[in-house]
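Hello,

Our lab assistant flagged a job as stuck in the queue for most of the afternoon. It eventually completed. Since we weren't sure the result was trustworthy after the delay, we are filing this so someone can double-check. Below is the sequence as submitted and the structure that was eventually returned. Let us know if re-running is recommended.
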Amino acid sequence: MSPRRFRLERGATVVPGGVRFSVWAPRARSVAVVLSRRPDHPVELTAHPDGSFSVVTSAEAGDDYRYLLDGQRLLPDPVSRHQPEGVHGVSRVVDPRAYRWQSQGWRGLALADYVFYELHVGTFTPEGSFDGAIAHLDALVELGITAVELMPVAAFPGARNWGYDGVGLFAPHHDYGGPEGLRRLVDACHQRGLAVVLDVVYNHLGPEGNYLGAYGPYFSPRYHTPWGDALNYDGPDSDEVRRFVLDNARTWIDEFQIDALRLDAVHGIFDASAWHLLAELSACVRAEATARGRKLHLIAESDLNDVRVIAAPARGGHDLDAQWSDDFHHATHAVLTGDRAGYFGDFGKVEDLAAAYTRGFVHDGRPSAYRRRRHGASLGDEPGSKLVVYLQNHDQIANASQGRRLGARVPPAVERLAAFLLVCAPNLPMLFMGQEWSASSPFLYFTSHGDAALAAAVTEGRRREHEVFGAAADAPFVAPQSLAALERSRLDWSERERPGHIELVALYRELLALRRRTPALRDGRRDLISASFGEEPRWLQIDRGGGALLLVNFEADQPVQVTVAPPRQPLRLWAASDERRWGGQGPGLTGPTPPTAREASATTPPHLLAAGVATTVTCPARVALLYLPESR
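-- returned structure --
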């Protein structure tokens, strides 16, 4: 007998003869459902011993409703599938089975095949909608992206928010296109061979429109997160709270065909029970994958550097498929920009970047001056393909960089060099929207809270954080409540075709194609990697097990000479970050007559590295060189 597929039972479900309403509300003595088309005829729900209430009544898809608690408070459904008038308004009955999927044969991708592209629906296009994003999917496929990662789309207060103030966890935001808009976007992705990753937030809820506490003990008095009250995953009555989150994860898979979930800041999920919520969530998702014959994945954001997040249960782990690697970002960012503010003070040496390639976690038990203690533990023998790496993401741009992208902080030569560092890492690469063309738009933190006191508190809090990371003169503070914070963050897609931008697109396209075709660049084998480096001058050499060699010179104005150990097979210089076709000043390498050994000078890297022969390679200033097998 095959495992049973999940179906959401809480909330409003279309059934033969009407709609079944089900809600867990142990703090209420009575619950009634009030349909907007029959506001004077509330229908009482039947109470059950577990604190839930339910009823089947005459209603249909498209009906709006709210719950009346104890005859006094009209509130939205905590498991609402749609909030058409915002998080304070009515909930709407949705029949998820009414949508006709055009990509029914889709079975997902192996995680090893993921090349992520993180985007914010509200600023990705001028329309700021799910449907608007569909128009640019072909460009992502052409670039070499295989997985679209959506920042949170759960219903939030107001019309604009960067996503992490969601309160309607089951309801895709109405202004983006609601549940049907999200289904259309996912369907369009799958038709193009793109997996869809959804960012979900299970460590807190937003401060406005959060009505869960009126229904039951959803929050814990024992724990607190930097973003608000922690959810009650291990205290009295926590079983239903855990069910709420497990149901949410499975609903995205069942009703929206999502392929992977990115779990926001799991270090803010507090659970002292014997079966940690993350482990239970992993087991549920793996069961759904088996039942549906689909490839499904869980990816964590964690600043713990704790291998237990991704380790198998037999090794005491939670068994998630992968996690984000802030260490790779911080090591790269600090070397490329010289930034030492906040947690970047723990980084800055090329040695740190070499450690990110070889050890995975830079902080694997070593002291952290920022934390004033030792931090992290060894990644052990977990493969590099369990880490997602990035040069930029929503958090690091909007928070640590005051909205400034990498291209606003470093010259084009460094941005090209950085692309090599990302794509040649033994991990799963992720780009942030617009990164591929060095978008000039910042990415700022933005909100549209309706509560004036809350809006003022958020603005002041963000102003203080702005100062912690050394606000620069060219990054003035922009109030998150202002419309300008959103509008300035919107991508200008016309930039992508302009000189100074289109060249970087071509570079990323070529690098991702090389990665796709070269086993040594995508095998995730940390055990085969060796690294050597220098600090004065600054250079890095990464040997991907004899199948690929990356040389990088970080110096701004001087070439460096690096002696390459004898390769096991001939290696050809396939790509250099300073080639003219990518906006640099160096010679092209892919024409009919590439430079030969006889043409090489003291400042020109050799085109071929002979097998079994040590070679001294001169790497020009601010250049990355990628050597791959001669016969490919």
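-- support follow-up --
The delay was a queue issue, not a problem with the job. The result is valid. Residues 312 and 319 are 5 Å apart (CA to CA). The first strand starts at residue 11 and ends at 15.
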